[in-house]
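Troubleshooting entry. Yesterday's outputs looked truncated, so today I'm pasting the complete records for two proteins to confirm everything comes through intact. If either block looks cut off, that's the bug. Protein one:
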Amino acid sequence: MTLLLTFDALDRGALKLGDQLAMTAEGERQAPSRLGLARRHTIVVRDALRAVAVISANDIAVALADRLAGSEAQFVVMMNRRAAQIGMTQTQFRNATGLAPGAGLTTARDLAKLSRYIIKRYPGRYGLFSTRVIRWKGRVRPNHNQLLGKVTGLDGLKTGYTVQAGFNLAASAKRKETRMIVIVMGAKTAPARDLLVANLLESGFSSPDRRRSQGKR
């Protein structure tokens, strides 16, 4: 949702990819995963988006929230309003990062709605989620989504982890004219989560019902 609201701001001209984003005190205090940008130092918005999408950079997410809404608290209001607009009826955001405590609540169905909305509303920006690595201060940081390049057609979307919620992944893959979205939440380990996502995608693409519907077209 933090990225969706940033896409919205870019779309209406309130933010530009080349703008400089300054790290705020609140952003600097965030727990890992972090990019590690020091307070008052800046990063180009284009690179900030990559940091959030690829390594779930919580410090950058909060800096974006501060930039777009003036404070993280106001940004949360924007998040929940946008969630309601796209039909996420069982979601309540409470911060810009999803970190506990106070992370809020959501469901697999609502995350699927959010994933589908981003893919359809911003097809030109969706490619951000397939970025394999970012480089920052000489260090290569790989995408937390380890299924990129391993599952045919997989091109996003986003991993997540907290102690309370476990290992989570909103994944999407496209093969020919068919796109699948799979949401796995609460896995005990990242490998277990990834295996379940991969298996569900393969099951979806090989479903007899899907093949019959394609034949009818």
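Protein two, checking that the full record survives here as well:
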Amino acid sequence: MSHSSFSSREPKRLLERATALVPDGAVMPREQAQALIEKVVKMSKADEISVNVNSSYQADVRFAANQMSTSGGVINGTLTVQSTFGKKHAAAVTNDLSDESLRRTVEQSEALAKLSPDDPETMPGLGPQTYLPVNGYFDSTANLSPEDRARASLTARGRPLNACPLNR
């Protein structure tokens, strides 16, 4: 995880220190997510299983007293397992992707599903699907520096960049 916090009242000094980019490995590659899903599916004893992997990096710039006060980023990742036995189903979520945690999450999902009442509206899971690849990741956006985000924020707030103390 990468997180930086600054409290300097001097914008130039602040921007000199705010140089972190998206850390390597912040967003899980498709191949790693697929391997994780396959591992979880093999652990399951349920009639049906659905596994959802979410990985993200969120960067922020915060302003206080009309100037940038903090800049940082947070890496997030979760795995959701939904187990189904007949008309019973339940889900469990974890952000710990160790083998032991994955095993516990699958077991918890299955135990909760067995305890759940029958769902009269249960539909069978979809068969194999084919999806077109979507490229929702852009290096130009992911690699914005805190300075770039600050400049974009000032422009978005309707202030011309040359009126900003960050450009002096």
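Both blocks look complete. Sanity check on protein two: Residues 1-22 have pLDDT under 50 and may be disordered.
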